[in-house]
Specification:
heterodimer; A: 277 residues; alpha/beta; 6-stranded parallel β-sheet; 53% helix; 12% strand; elongated; B: 218 residues; mainly alpha; extended
Chain lengths: 277, 218
């Protein structure tokens, strides 16, 4: 009982310290735990793999820096996979905080693989309007985004002259952290414009996407950092997500342990309270 | 007349936009596209209204030195600072280009602050797991078991612990089963209910039965 009381009254800062250590240590000294690729992540990879070389893919990066640790590695891997297959990318963003993140990924990976802006990829940037932008974009890319991220008229970009609707593209990739995101793209665009779509989302949002995955409206799903790490494994380029999975593993185990410990204390105290003194 | 006009306008806009989902003819598609363009403009102007609201609500509290007035001054100062830097000192429309002062603020202030806020969640979840997640009922027990299975089953350690077991009782298999079936069934039920509710409310607004959004007291 006394030990239980001590734990019950434990200063929460000790728990914070343990969480910090359990996240930090695996980041500094990776455990390299074996990683299995789940079905939805495999389907995502196969959907990208099935895109023919030279095709155009639309990538909507609907996130901001808060979800960067989960979604930036994911976006980077998808962009790398597409560029390696010589697939061209038209990117857009519907979250005001995210465009520089997506732009940096496109330029970093594009430069590394010798891709040219305007020919191999275009970043249309941010458009306010949230859900209202989606059907408008489905009707016409150039009408919804007359200029790209840096203000250049899209009519001057060779890639944009080849695609103005989803019918001229092979796949739609949505990396999303919430509203507006995958759910809204499915509702506003996927069925209406007959779009083949895959989604990468934060772990918190991933369960929201499962009904669309099961119905086939979304053909592949990467959920959170685990999904990003599985994709890195699939394309054989380990990155930040693979590194982060060790930290996430230890943090998850610690939280599970805390739930069990908290309940063990609760039940022991309840038992003691019921016993006649 | 003042009451009728908004109802008629709402009905016309609603019917045209709904029809555009099913009728690709230019007589419907063109006006619907125009309405969508207007919607985008209206949402964009909402940002101006939002900014004005932040100034009004926080400005009053800051001047009157109400609770947390220091933080309100920091908010107003940071917001004004970023706007001034973005509008006047970052090359106009090129404000997000590498090397611009606004981009510096984005990279070295906005990104780390957002990451910090989100990272704090891990600490609070751990503390809450220890203190608040008590199994007092059967429902809570089911929730706790599902949470533990999904939490451990979605990380490599969970995979490692049960790798020697037959596949159906491995943690990742159980986590995926929970996500794909019970979770999906509940989620789908909620989605269908919410969808029907949205349709009913939408129809009531279009037909002018529901007018509460037009009155301030509503």
């Amino acid at each position: 009982m006394a030990f239980g009381d001590t734990l019950e009254k434990l200063d929460r800062r000790w728990i914070f310290l343990l969480v910090a250590l359990l996240v930090l240590i695996p980041l500094l000294r990776p455990l390299r735990l074996p990683l299995a690729v789940s079905g939805p992540a495999r389907n995502f990879y196969e959907a990208v793999e099935a895109v023919p070389a030279g095709s155009i893919v639309v990538l909507a990066g609907d996130f901001d820096p808060a979800s960067a640790p989960e979604l930036v590695p994911m976006t980077k891997s998808v962009v790398r996979h597409l560029f390696r297959k010589n697939v061209r990318i038209i990117a857009l963003e519907l979250w005001e905080g995210g465009p520089p993140l997506v732009d940096a990924i496109l330029h970093d990976v594009g430069d590394e693989l010798g891709k040219k802006y305007g020919i191999d990829y275009v970043n249309l940037g941010y458009k306010s309007g949230r859900e209202a932008v989606m059907p408008s974009f489905g009707n016409s890319f150039s009408r919804t985004f007359p200029n790209d991220y840096s203000g250049t008229a899209v009519s001057k970009l060779p890639l944009m002259r080849e695609a103005d609707t989803f019918a001229q593209t092979a796949l739609f990739v949505n990396i999303s952290a919430g509203y507006p995101g995958t759910k809204e793209w499915v509702q506003q665009v996927q069925g209406r414009f007959d779009v083949r779509m895959v989604s990468g989302s934060t772990a918190v949002q991933a369960p929201e996407i499962y009904p669309y995955l099961q119905s086939g409206q979304v053909v592949g799903l990467l959920g959170g950092m685990a999904g990003a790490a599985e994709y890195e494994k699939s394309i054989n380029v380990p990155g930040a997500a693979t590194k982060g999975m060790d930290a996430q593993s230890s943090a998850h185990m610690f939280i599970a342990f805390l739930i069990l410990l908290g309940n063990a204390i609760y039940f022991s105290r309840r038992g003691a309270a019921r016993r006649p003194s | 007349m003042m009451n009728l006009l908004p109802v008629v306008l709402t009905a016309i806009v609603g019917i045209v936009v709904i029809l555009s989902f099913f009728v690709p003819h230019p007589y419907i598609a063109e006006p619907a596209q125009k309405l969508q363009d207007w919607a985008i403009v209206i949402v964009a102007s909402g940002y101006v209204l939002g900014a004005a609201n932040v100034y009004k609500v926080n400005g009053e509290s800051a001047i009157k030195r109400q609770k947390d007035w220091v933080y309100k001054w920091i908010l107003l100062g940071s917001m004004t600072g970023m706007m001034v830097v973005g509008f006047f000192f970052s090359g106009g429309t090129q404000f997000l280009n590498e090397g611009s002062p606004f981009k510096w603020g984005y990279d070295f202030l906005y990104v780390p602050m957002q990451a910090t806020m989100f990272s704090l969640l891990a600490f609070f979840i751990a503390s809450a797991a220890f203190r608040a997640f008590r199994i007092r009922t059967v429902d809570a027990a089911l929730l706790a078991v599902a949470a533990l299975v999904v939490m451990i089953g979605r990380v490599p350690l969970g995979n490692l612990f049960t790798a020697a077991f037959p596949e159906p009782i491995q943690l990742p298999t159980m986590a995926n089963w929970l996500l794909e079936w019970p979770q999906n069934a509940a989620k789908r039920g909620i989605a269908i209910g919410a969808g029907l509710g949205v349709m009913a409310t939408g129809l009531r607004i279009i037909l002018g039965i529901e007018r509460s959004h037009m009155r301030e007291e509503a």
